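Extended Data, panel c. Modelled sequence:
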Amino acid sequence: MTTYQPSISLDDARRIISTALQHGVENDMNPLVVLVIDTAGSPVAYERSDGSPPGRFDIALGKANGALQMGVNSKRLGEMAIERPHFISGVAGSLRGPLVPVAGGVIVIDNGIVVGAVGVSGDTSDNDEAAAIAGIESAGLQHP
């Protein structure tokens, strides 16, 4: 039997999600959704707070996927969209999966190796990013 090693563990993904959601509650944020993807862009775990609109999954996926595939956090992609809108528009149409160029998508690093990305959506983009970072750090992982 062939076994595949996931790039980020389910336990780490669950810890990231739990802490990110708790961060949202503690900081009086709007209901959040938190998605963790592996290096192939596949969802590892996902949760949404009660009262969060269903479209937030797609936004969180676009933030995480864009960050992972472009190698920079989605906040930087937003800056690039202002600096070079034609480039980001072209990239968005050519990537495998969605790209949402606003803060809230954060690359996850373990001992210098990218192991996945987190996408958070529901509050302001900067608050979404803060929740993602809180989750990553709680799992003992790093981010750029």
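The domain at 10-138 is CATH 3.30.450.150 (Beta-Lactamase). This feature is highlighted in the accompanying rendering.
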